[in-house]
What does this fold into?
Amino acid sequence: MTESSSRPGARLRIDIVTIFPEMVKAAFAEGIVGRAINSGILDVAVHDLRDFTTDRHRVVDDVPFGGGPGMVMKPEPFFAAVDSIRERRGRPSAVVLTTPDGARFTHRDAVRLSALSHVVLLCGRYEGIDDRVRQQLATEELSIGDYVLSGGELPALVMLDAMARLVPGVVGDEASVAHDTFTQGILDYPQFTRPASFRGADAPAVLLSGHHAEIARWRRREALARTLERRPDLLADAELDDEDRAILDALRARD
Ligand code: JD8
It folds into this structure.
């Protein structure tokens, strides 16, 4: 096994099965996910699929039954890897297959999965994985979006990152997670920092005013205006109060 961390007692245990363990581990060598792993809040283990082959050449792929281009990943190494995870790391609450034909992975899925104690992420390559892995091993199939990637590693890392941020203590400032776009259901307000004037463009004066209530009102209005302009679809499910609705009505009346 190729393991990057094994921390019993961590709040969320994630196992990633891949033929590119170094690529996966490189992604959390730095940043807040890496820090959470090192501090024991997250227990992430990366497993090299080839370690679960039984032949001399550690072959993980074969020609597709019925012919056609490319290669298909053999089922046995995936079954052996999940058996081994079950024995050594406990029974997972979910086994996620990253696949372009899965349901769209959303913030809702991140919230749901991050609340589980143990999630396994299976990464395919080539033309995909023998369908019996989907039928018998996966508890769900998820895709990160409508574009073609060359394998499931980047999707698994996207899912890990989104889940990890939701585990208490991973992001230093809990308020920042609570304010995130898809927690709130609307887009973020624009951010500014020093210098107050840069290449002829000034930061909004209200942000330098020190009037906290006014700043909060301005930000809420900017966030609602941006959401109305760019992602009106989000408003249907957003958490809005009466003042938000009044702001939106006024913005809609302007054009
Ligand atoms: C897993 C193999 C590549 C898939 C031929 C080349 C997710 N949103 C997403 N886009 N792509 C993937 C994804 C792609 C994958 C694998 C995920 C395993 N490939 C294959 C079938 C058609 N290509 C993904 N999640």
User: Anything to note?
Assistant: The longest helix spans residues 212-230.
